[in-house]
Amino acid sequence: MKGLLIYGEPLVPRGVPSRLCGTNHGGYDAGMLDAVLSITVLAAILLIIGAFFLWRRTGNVKNALLMVLLAAVALMNVAIWTLPDAGGEAPLDRLEQGAR
Questions:
Q1: Distance separating the N- and C-terminal Cα atoms of the chain
Q2: pLDDT at 25
C-alpha cells in the first residue's frame, strides 16, 4: 500500500512532501531506518568506550573483548546497509526507491 487514499486522493497534508509521510518507500519508512542506523552507530561507539572503561577498572578482558566484538558486528551491519555494491547502489538506496 503506497498510502491511504480518501476519495481517490492521498491523505497527505498540503505542502508536505510525500517522502516525509512515508508513503513512497515500499512500505518502509526510510526516516525510521536512518534513525535506527544512527542509533546503532552511537551504540557501537558507546560499547567501545564502555569496554575500555571496563578493562581499565576491573581488568576483565573477556567481557571487554566481547563488547568490542558486539560493536564490530553492529558496525558491519551498518556497513552492509550503507556501502554500495559492485553495481554502485547501496541496499538502503534500493529500499528508498521502493524495490524490495
A1: 14
A2: 46
Query: Helices 30-58 and 61-82 sit at what angle, rounded to 10 degrees?
Result: 160
Instruction: Render 70-88 in DSSP notation, one character per residue.
Output: HHHHHHHHHHHHHS--TTS
Give the residue ranges of DSSP H helices in the chain: 18-21, 30-58, 61-82, 91-96
CB atoms within 10 A of CB 5: 10
User: Looking at per-residue confidence, does 85 or 76 come out higher?
Assistant: 76
Of all helices (H) and strands (E), which one includes residue 27? none
Share of the chain above pLDDT 70, in %: 68
pLDDT (tens digit, 9 = 90+) per residue, 29-40? 667 888 899 999
Residues 6+ apart with CB under 8 A from 55: 61, 64
**Phi/psi at 16 (5° precision):** -100, 120
C-alpha cell at 58: 576491573
pTM higher than 0.90: no
